Structure formats: structure tokens, C-alpha cells
Amino acid sequence: MIVFPNAKINIGLNVIEKREDGFHNIESVFYPVTDLFDVLEVVENEELEFASSGIVIPGDITFNLCVKAYQLIKADYDIPFVKIHLHKNIPIGAGLGGGSSDAAFMLKVLNDLFKLNLSVDQLVAYARKLGSDCTFFIENKSVYAFNKGDEFENVALDLSDYELKIEYPNIHIGTTEAYSGVIPQRLEQNLKDLIQEPVINWKNSIKNDFENSVFLTHTKIEKCKLQMYIDGAIFASMTGSGSTVFGIFEKK
Fold first, then answer.
1. How many C-beta atoms lie closer than 10 Å to residue 174's C-beta?
2. pLDDT digit string (tens) for 60-119?
3. Identical fold at 2-152 and 158-250?
4. Where are the domains of the chain?
5. 162-167 and 151-154 as β-strands: parallel, antiparallel, unpaired?
6. Fold annotation for 2-152
7. How far apart are CA 202 and CA 192, in angstroms?
8. 11, 108, 141, 247: which sits with the fewest CB atoms below 10 Å from its CB?
């Protein structure tokens, strides 16, 4: 079975407060980008195998989220071993959610391939064990994300009438680095309300809290955003904690 785990962007990202467990409460709008995707193939096999192509995936394969997703399901259901092949197109550590998408799609593939009949809520529960962003890709539709970024409310957002440009400046931003320059604060107006304004108004009201600190040390990323506006974007932003920048343009 072959599926195509897609990327996502953050439209706005506000760091609200630091939690007692060391994580942060945030608010953001997650939007799926279906034109940018990895390719995931899963077939039955005599043993568990994982292979990849495309962008090189660093680290031990036992820590790969696709493998972890398989192990989670295998612990509860008597499913066969599988061979996993992941062709990686989505840049790693770029704020596009590629690894999380791969893991969520792996859960959905196993559910379909072996007819486990898991509900959306059950799949979400498994995804939550793999990472905050993973849960988004189970239903894979635009949402307002809050708390740790793993609780959602649906938002009516459709950017299909616009052109979306994504640029990855080949810079990896670690989570610790990104949070080091952020001062948590609660905004007067909720992002869920701001996102309902016309896209042309977003430039003056929607922001990514990580930009201030990231731009100080990585001017190349800031230049990418500025170039989006020079090229005619009506809204541009860094996504997640970086380093990818996206721009929303009127269709020519």
C-alpha cells in the first residue's frame, strides 16, 4: 500500500505560557499542504524492515517515527511484520511537520492494510503518543491548535483560491534555540478569530512568535520572508519554529 504523507504550515504561532511540565501552551492554525508530500510504501514481510530514499534521514532507524508507529500498533494487535519504504521529499526539521505526517500516515496505513477498524479517536490516541503534531495529520484538515498544540478545533479555512509558495533556506532550527528568545504572553484577540479576517488583513494582525529570536541569528530566513513580500505576497511568515518560510499570493 502506498500513501503520500503531506506537509503542513502554521499560520500564526503564539507562545502563550510555559507549563509546569516544561512544555509550552501555544495557539496556532495548522493548514495542510497537499502539494508537498513524502511517499510511504508498506507491504507485508517476513521481518520488520525500514528503508528510505530521497532526503537522507539521520539517526538510528529504531527511533524513526514510522517504526515507532508500527511498534505501537503491534503491541496491541497481532499484525504481521512489514517492510517500510519512505521516500523523503519534505525537508527535515523545517517546521513543515514531515516526520509527524509520516508517523500519522503509517498508523492509518496499518489500520487500512490489516483492517483493524480503528476509529479516528483511537488513531488520535496512538498519534498523541508519537508527538504533538502527529495528531493533526490523522484527520488532516485545517484546525485551530491550542494547549501543547495537540488539541484542536475546526476552522473554516480554504486557501485554494490563492497560490502558496514555500521556501526552505536549508537551515535547521532546534526547538531549544527557537524557544530561548521567546517571552510567552497571551494576546488580547484570539487567533481563531483573526484567521477569519480576509487574508489581506493578516499581515498586520497574525504573527509567529519565533521570528523575533530566529531572525536575529539567521538573517537569511528573514530575507526569505522579505523577498516574499517583494515578490507580491499578501501574507508571508515563517512556519513552526522554522526555518521554512511561506508566502500567500493572489493567483495570476
1. 11
2. 888 899 999 999 999 999 999 999 999 999 999 899 999 999 999 999 999 999 999 999
3. no
4. 2-152, 158-250
5. unpaired
6. Ribosomal Protein S5; domain 2 (3.30.230)
7. 12
8. 141
Place of cell 484527520: 139
Backbone φ/ψ region at 97: left (φ over 0), alpha (ψ -120 to 50), beta: left
Residue 18 pLDDT greater than 90, yes or no:
no
Domain 158-250: which topology? Alpha-Beta Plaits (3.30.70)
Q: Is 8 a catalytic residue?
A: yes
Considering the candidates 38, 88, 108, 133, report the single residue annotated as catalytic.
133
pLDDT in tens, 127-176: 999 987 899 999 999 999 998 888 899 999 999 999 999 999 999 887 77
Q: What are phi and psi of 42, to 5 degrees?
A: -130, 125
133 catalytic? Reply is: yes
Rounded to an integer, what distance in angstroms lies between the CA atom of residue 133 and that of residue 131? 6
Which pTM does this prediction carry? 0.93
Tell me which residue of 26, 24, 27, 9 sits closest to 192, measured CA to CA. Answer: 27
Q: Tens of pLDDT along 29-43?
A: 999 999 999 999 999
